[in-house]
Amino acid sequence: xxxxxxxxxxxxxxxxxxxxxxxxxxxxxxxxxxxxxxxxxxxxxxxxxxxxxxxxxxxxxxxxxxxxxxxxxxxxxxxxxxxxxxxxxxxxxxxxxxxxxxxxxxxxxxxxxxxxxxxxxxxxxxxxxxxxxxxxxxxxxxxxxxxxxxxxxxxxxxxxxxxxxxxxxxxxxxxxxxxxxxxxxxxxxxxxxxxxxxxxxxxxxxxxxxxxxxxxxxxxxxxxxxxxxxxxxxxxxxxxxxxxxxxxxxxxxxxxxxxxxxxxxxxxxxxxxxxxxxxxxxxxxxxxxxxxxxxxxxxxxxxxxxxxxxxxxxxxxxxxxxxxxxxxxx
Amino acid sequence: xxxxxxxxxxxxxxxxxxxxxxxxxxxxxxxxxxxxxxxxxxxxxxxxxxxxxxxxxxxxxxxxxxxxxxxxxxxxxxxxxxxxxxxxxxxxxxxxxxxxxxxxxxxxxxxxxxxxxxxxxxxxxxxxxxxxxxxxxxxxxxxxxxxxxxxxxxxxxxxxxxxxxxxxxxxxxxxxxxxxxxxxxxxxxxxxxxxxxxxxxxxxxxxxxxxxxxxxxxxxxxxxxxxxxxxxxxxxxxxxxxxxxxxxxxxxxxxxxxxxxxxxxxxxxxxxxxxxxxxxxxxxxxxxxxxxxxxxxxxxxxxxxxxxxxxxxxxxxxxxxxxxxxxxxxxxxxxxxxxxxxxxxxxxxxxxxxxxxxxxxxxxxxxxxxxxxxxxxxxxxxxxxxxxxxxxxxxxxxxxxxxxxxxxxxxxxxxxxxxxxxxxxxxxxxxxxxxxxxxxxxxxxxxxxxxxxxxxxxxxxxxxxxxxxxxxxxxxxxxxxxxxxxxxxxxxxxxxxxxxxxxxx
Amino acid sequence: xxxxxxxxxxxxxxxxxxxxxxxxxxxxxxxxxxxxxxxxxxxxxxxxxxxxxxxxxxxxxxxxxxxxxxxxxxxxxxxxxxxxxxxxxxxxxxxxxxxxxxxxxxxxxxxxxxxxxxxxxxxxxxxxxxxxxxxxxxxxxxxxxxxxxxxxxxxxxxxxxxxxxxxxxxxxxxxxxxxxxxxxxxxxxxxxxxxxxxxxxxxxxxxxxxxxxxxxxxxxxxxxxxxxxxxxxxxxxxxxxxxxxxxxxxxxxxxxxxxxxxxxxxxxxxxxxxxxxxxxxxxxxxxxxxxxxxxxxxxxxxxxxxxxxxxxxxxxxxxxxxxxxxxxxxxxxxxxxxxxxxxxxxxxxxxxxxxxxxxxxxxxxxxxxxxxxxxxxxxxxxxxxxxxxxxxxxxxxxxxxxxxxxxxxxxxxxxxxxxxxxxxxxxxxxxxxxxxxxxxxxxxxxxxxxxxxxxx
Lengths: 330, 505, 456
Description:
Chain A contains 13 helices and 12 strands.
């Protein structure tokens, strides 16, 4: 009881001290006018808030690192948050960016549609929004520019690699994650390429591997049970490809079923070197991050920016892996 | 009284335990005020007093559960500080509480050695443990399988396990809190033999009990506490039953059971063929207006089960209940209550009260429909009603928001009584209404039962204490194996032997 | 201190016993107020008046000024007010730029080419932060002599800004609403793990109904309300089902609701085909993002109303007493005539329905429904209840305590985002703060003794 009252007392004192501070500090600081405009926040030129889909995937970590790096070069500070797949959490993070008055916001939406209200709130506060890797599909939510891998082209490249590996015949399955726009494009590219080149390869079905290793493993196991004559699997990213590889190993069919991944993360590249994955259309997350920040700088300088900037992926085979300095360094 | 008592008190050796000037206060209550206690080797010291007199507090201080505010404790003439139960154990003190500290799914041996298992080369040394258990059982003349699971043992057997555990810890002082509360007569005899064995082994026993006849049979010294103060501690030969009761209560009591003008009316409650599985079979009886019907029998004879059937706490397989000529449909306690039947359960703590809630909440629980409009409780009215009962029943509580757990047994029972009296039921079933309650409060509860009967209510009183059943009832039903084994209509002329004969069969 | 104690009296002591966590909340608020002390500046017309006054004092007469504002409501207020102010002061307005840096650059280049380069720029603070204005001499050497006027600053915690306080409340609304039902369930000594999944289920069901039955993006307001009500009722029925499992078959609540959690989540994914459903009218955000009375968000008002109703129910009605008694000692309550089964069914139904409402609020906030909503919310909800002082063993707890608990969590999350704590570190800190809050509460109950309770 005594202590509780003591705590109360301390609190009252702190609160009153604080309100005292407030009164002093609301008086105009002598920093108005032209001089103030030069450098109102000291050395840091400004802040960029970024909220990515997740930080459990190295792809986004690479984006974030590149953004931080590029922002620093321009004298900006990057505030990094992650929605971990929760659109409501992402909205909260955007609200916090608005309170912090960042100069620009970079989003990789947790949900291409649900992100709309968050973007609109940023629009209302006059903060420009850029999306990286995953686009917003929400109507009347204004995004200045979208910077991403050309996922559709990547999907086509994956199909080319599949045709090459299978000698243009056989049955393949797709480990999908159709909630995310970029993945939808990859799958569509894959399907379109097979169709347009009139390939006899049959797609036996698309399953949701949720883009993660454990789910990919579980789903691939079921696919392998259901389709004994499967010749190839196209997994929409490296984690699900590696999950599928574990399932292949378990079923004793590793090496007999061709695996094509996507992304070209370090783990995926290693798997290509070891022959576990046949090939990956690789993305360049660092380039995405860097390009996004450069686009923001251009925008803040008053230059025109393109509404969409696509960065083409490129196919990465075992031969590329053997020459890759990132792998030989390990 | 007993020859042993005199021999023990004849030449007092150095005391095993001396507690002097023990003080202990709780918020709002002074539980103990300067209490002294002396215990010699081979002595049985009975501590008696009303509930709330401070017996339990004193024993908890000795057992290390509470710290005294002031006072000294000496063990074997050496001043000791008992800060926790481990200190007490090291000092040779073992307390056997009413609720045993045994783990049901462990064996007798495992329970006795719990927390100090014997090992040899890192493995449990089961044989050494078994030998030790057998040695102790032999010492106190008990036959019990060390590998039996404690959950399968009778209450009396579990108690022996507790005693054996105390002995295996080399306890020199054993405290027993109401050890006979749940024992049959034969089991009480066995316990007394064990206690006599302990005496001959120079072990000091502190014996806490409400049952004065037992106290007079086994104790060497009686110590009486009242309101946290020591009223007197003398050899048993200098007391008689009447004088102990008067010291406990602090006033003269003319008669243990108050008299009443019996004016019974016509039949009100009629039970026909009530049956549930094997516990209650085809029971039929009736209760008249203004009658106190005693229901007795051995533990497990189906008395409580019968009461629960009437109250709707369990579902009956068949049979009918009618009140004032109207047949009742009772499928839950809620139905029974709305028909005007209430049950004061035997176990107040687990069935009668929500212990962590306030007295007011407990009082209001069955009465909220009467105290509320549109579902909103008229708290003022509720408080006023409670205040009336607090005064009428002399319930000792600091305020209405006091938590039920903090009350003494007698006051808890009065709160339970108050909540049912407010309902103004026609049939009131008391299951062991005075168990664990001190003499003074007992008398008040008896008086109240009489008053209710005089108002024309039907009272069913379940009691294991034959003097109580004989002293209070207008008529007694004796149960055996779930059936009514006999009826005693002429209670004033009946004897305890007669009742026991019916109960045993 | 003694006088203080006397004055506080019994009511004060009971308040501290029930709602002691409020001090933890205050402490957090104080901490984050100090930690987020930052430079602030006025916006809208207030900013415009200030800048115009500054400009009149320091700008040589005859010089033309350009007004620059960013996007948004506040910014256009600024522009309008500044233009009017300058005209009134007789300063020539060279132009008004509303929008982004490229528009300003074009305008400056155009004015420069026409020989009408402004001598001053009046900008909102946001616009003044554009690199184009900050480094104007480097980017547009022609405009190097221009002086820039923008609102002057003062220091005030980001945390205590009205916007942010509303954001704190807004972020916790869903969890706080669901926590009302959870508090009741936990008071009956139960638990409901299905609430997170029910949020997703309700969001998906409401949006799917609107899409398929009420006319998708052209749905009427009444249609939307009906669809949302249907979703809430469905969640209530799921709650009743959990309650039946608990009462009729004595399935432990943990297991029964764990099962329902999987069922509800699976159903949500199935109904939505794994996608988010966004074919709903934009006006669905009326509940989640709209404001009414005094500009307070509707969600906040809804939450306040629900808390008041629940508090009154739990503290003033017979039903509330029954809920407490059922959790305090189920057998004693039953033997006192409390319909314990119906009470348990009731609390699970309320908990389910409130989870459904939470899903509807989230749908409204995000203008779409997706099965990924509500992920792990059950844990935050339970944390809010426990931090709010409700005992998991049942019989004890306060509805308003839960509100405090929810706000503690919201303030920590918001504060950490404002102070730039990394997101994984945030979880560690949140976990530790929850533990510390509960420990503090236990210590208080024990009278601030470190040793106590069991010994040995």
